[in-house]
Amino acid sequence: MDSRSSSDGLNSTPDSSSSPTSSPSSAVQRALQRIQSDDQDSKLQGAQEIRRLTKTSHRCRRQLSASVGPLVSMLRVRDSTESHESALLALLNLAVKDETNKIKIVEAGALEPIISFLESQSSNLQEYAAASLLTLSASAVNKPIIGSSGAIPLLVETLRHGSPQAKVDSVMALSNLSTHPSNLTIILEAKPIPSIVTLLKPCKKSSKTAEKCCALIESLVGFDEGRTALTSEEGGVLAVIEVLENGSLQSREHAVGALLTMCQSDRCRYREAILKDGVIPGLLELTVQGTPKSQTKAHTLLHLLRDSPYPRPELQADTLENIVCNIISQIDGDDQAGKAKKMLAEMVQVSMEQSLRHLQQRALVCTPTDLPISACTSEVSLK
């Protein structure tokens, strides 16, 4: 099968050399004639040609959009795995990075047969069905339609028992679908978190799979059932923390967001569960090296994880260093506390180096022609 991309399910390079409005080539015309034929062998050849022509060409996807109806009809042919696979792969390539075709495929009635293929005994057909739903669910128009079609419980079931590739595509499809509010409760009712955690634990934490798992977890822990499921799953919180430490920038943002949502919902209930798995070193690093959103969330979570979430009445400054020292003093185990102290020292060092660079840059722009020397010196000293 063609290789996946992060958003649609397949890698593709749009053919920018020709306009989508160019006249169809002879190869495109031949493929259309074959797919519209009444002869099943011709249809099969047409589907295979469409798959090939649309693999990398946006122009061909536009020119072959008329083939959607005949291809969907091939999905309904009984006892013909070859027809089903060829039609699915052709539809998949037609939909890649083409919003119009995505919507047209769903409107043509493709969802019912595609969903049924998730239960197929053929691992290939199951994988192609999951990849198709991943691609089609990238469309905002399709999200509520797919959510109400009965696909979500079967995607969760595929996430539990499917092939490795089908599991990855299923979790990505669920992540796409979760961005539509009405789908979240349907996903939650299917109890996907144990399977998400099972997929997340062994995967590379900087991978797109880890990113989509954490994005989905972040959405689901907005509900009490989701928070309970994550903390009840052995290693569930730890898996999220590992992404916070070693994930991509976007993955780490989702991970810290999930933990923050939990702690904000019920600090007393989730504070210890988060602390005991060694979250502090990763949070410290995130306050310096994360995205702006990650940094803000990490700071907020550190405030919530300390002994008291409220500002201190005494004179001691409520600095990040003091907050972390307060947390470290309560951590059980020398290893975790030692690692956190080391991370704090490194964080302070990085912060000091960044501040020094900032001062040097400000000093460079303060030239005698801009300001008097005394004014320049005063400005720098105040920073």
From TrEMBL:
It comes from the Eukaryota. Residues 28-308 form the U-box domain. ARM repeats lie at residues 109-151, 150-190. Residues 1-44 are annotated as: Disordered. SMART domains: ARM. SUPFAM superfamilies: ARM repeat (SSF48371). Keywords: Repeat, Ubl conjugation pathway. InterPro entries: ARM-like, ARM-type_fold, ARM_PUB, Armadillo. This is U-box domain-containing protein. It comes from Prunus dulcis (Almond).
